[in-house]
Input
Amino acid sequence: MQDSYRELFLSESQEYLTIISNCLVKLEENPSDKNSINEIFRCVHTLKGMAATMGYEKLSHLAHETEDLLDAVRNHKIKLSGEITDTLFQAMDVLEQLFQEIKLKQESRIDTAAILQSLKRHLTGGESPSPEPPGAQPDTAPVASAQPAELFSFSTEELKHLKEVKSKFPFVYKIVISLVRDCVMKEARAFLVFTNLRRLGEIITSVPSLDQLKEGKFELVFTVVLATNELQGSLQQELAVLSDVDQINIFRLDVAEMTAVSSAVSSDKHEPEVAAAAAGPVAATAVKKIQSMRISVERLDKIMNLMGELAIAKIRLLQIVQSYKIETLEEVSFALDRLISALQDEVMQTRLLPVAYVLDAFPRVVRDISRKQNKEVELEIAGSDIELDRVVLDEISDPLLHLVRNSVDHGLEIPDDRKKLGKNPRGKIFIRVSRQKGQIYIEVGDDGRGIVFQSVRKTAIKKGLITEEEAATLDEKKILDLITLPGFSTADKVTDISGRGVGLDVVKSKIEYLGGRLDFETKANEGSKFILTLPLTLAIIKAMLVQVGKEVYAVPLINIRETIKIEAKDIKILQSFEVVKVRDEIIPIIRLNKELGITSKAPSENEKDTRVSLVIVEYGKKALGLAVSQVLGEQDIAVKPLGSWIKRTKGIAGATILGDGRVALILDIMSLK
Amino acid sequence: MKRVMIVDDALFMRQMISKILISEGYEVCSEASCATEAVEKYKKFKPDLVTMDIVMPMMEELDGIGAVREIVKLDPQARILICSVMGQQSLVVEAIRAGARDFVTKPVQPERLIVAVRNILNNT
Output
């Protein structure tokens, strides 16, 4: 129970943190942006409430202090300075760390004292505040506390209790009590409130429970349900005299309605609890309809996997139906075909998430890096609403981050240099996402200095990656190959942002592992741009089926440039490699049967046919011709991961099951070369 | 004028509390430095309110809580305000159970003390 709340709490908090971080960036650019500050305030406030309800004291305390500062800024008591924004950013970081701890179920080790102090310092206008009295801010690890305060359930026992006292205490109130923020010994305070309430009537229940309250497992707010014969007004008066109580909100609950539910419930023994949501002065038992729910990624994967199997079974069925020519069977199987296709699309949709999930973190990252480097950067993000498979999204977030860092670090010049070149001192970084023909294009680039061939050449020769002669023939196409070689970096010095060895080679291999492509364009003094081409999903891909001997292989369509037939005599030998000239391009040939060790002959293979089928695939900007026995055609295939024992086989990326039940291996073009 | 009795083993504390209360227009009718003395003086002076430190050196067999119990036994309407150092939650809870009306923590913050005293005396 507690765990499921925790998950919900964490995922929701993450959303708020993202909003806050983005708004902070906006606010920094435009300190008078009222909407942003209000939005931040709202999110921090909600976070505080959630954290308090969950019993995460440090979190809610920090959120509270942040809220105070924000409130002062919002009400123009304090002017927003760069320093304050920095502190707010820091506070966000600490909040994130605290969430991380909760996520990992770690004991809380993070010291929030420093950030609390600087928040307070701004609030008091620069004076150093007196240190927190010891014990006022208990350093307890996150404690499980209770359900969200708004909704609590009466057990049958409590309902029985309500019924019993009905004649004596006709009124039932839900009383929400908030203690003052600097309340000391809140446990004893809560007990005192309870003691006072007991003088006025009967306490039916409380959230958190009295025991939890006595152990301090609550933030500053708790809710009590009291049966009494006091009217609301006099109750308010009676409670007003309690010290250290900040706020008391009293809501009348409708006993008749609840006890009615109780009798209905007691006749149904399977449902011992009924939820009573007391949301207003008059109790409403209506529970909000659930509009969306969270499903674990694991389950979605399972569904997707079954979907793949279903699609395969469907193809088999269609093939069989075609050979029997029974009209009614055909009808129903075609209907089935349509339904399964529609279902497949829907299931696919569940796996998709907007790229914003990843890109939302970027404004903050860019801000941080550009600050460190004293560069002025404007980030443009376009197309962040485009949806992408969750798995792909997960995998590309690091590479994207690297590319962006790379652009700020290497691409953009410092403002002074930009001025000298007649450019806007504020550099521009852009991330543009677009979707074309079942593929996703992501462009990451800048309007910086571009890649200076000379410096790449020099570095490459110095590092012994190419010879002087090779360097002389270096063209734009080969630049990418060069800068994505492991260990290449032209950064003048190593910074903590880039140049630490994790280079473009990692980005490139990651993208290729995903069945994507990385391209590169650059122009001296105008900027550079990386173009990522990615499949929409990894689970179902379009592939070309080819026959090699008696075996069938699938080549991902994303890798294929074209399929052609060439005359065997056109194949030439160049430096002991077979090559063929296609439209003035020399393309090396790999004979798949040799490469994969297949000796069988394809049934259709005709000794007299002098032509060779070639599937021309691309990696980077290079082409490679795969010689196969026969090209069978294009098909959607469901990718099945390979078992761990053959996972690392060179040239094989996965497997799929064909319509006739045969298994076809999916070729991994990148590792073939 | 409402009459207050101050119970605390430390003279300094008694003086401080009494200074705060007098400045607010209360009469400090008596002071006691231990639990037994507090019970005796309560009988004698019948103050409107008692401020009581619950952690006092044991004199005879009566501690602060015991004093609260004794006084409430003598006078169910007795109004007792606990003064306690922080961290003595269980003792405070015990005192509330015994009938104390409210508590403040040491070091005593004048505003809080005043608010608590006022609240108790108004809420007869």
